[in-house]
Amino acid sequence: MTWRLSKATLESLPASIAAPLYDRAKIVPGIVHLGLGAFHRAHQAAYVDECLAAGEAGWGIVGASLRSADTRDALAPQDGLYTLAVRHGQREDLRVIGSIVSTLVAPENPEALLDALADPGIRIVTLTVTEKAYLRDAAGDLDIAHPDIAWDLSNPGKPKTLYGFLAKALLRRTAAGAPLFTVLCCDNLPANGATLRRLLLQFAAKRGDGLEGIASQVAFPSSMVDRIVPATTDEDRARICEQLGVDDAWPVMTEPFCQWVIEDRFTAGRPDWERFGVTMVEDVSPFEDMKLRLLNGSHSAIAYLGLLLGHATVAEAFADKAIRRFVEGLWGEAIPTLPKDAELDPAAYTKKLTDRYDNTALQHRTAQIAIDGSQKLPQRIIASALQRAGENADISHLMLVVAAWIAACEARGTQLDAGLFTDPLDGPLAAIAADKPSAADTVTRVFDAAGFAKGHTRRDRLAKATASHLQAIRGKGVAFALLELAKKKDSPS
Question: Which part of the chain is the Mannitol dehydrogenase N-terminal domain (predicted)?
Answer without folding.
Answer: 30-274
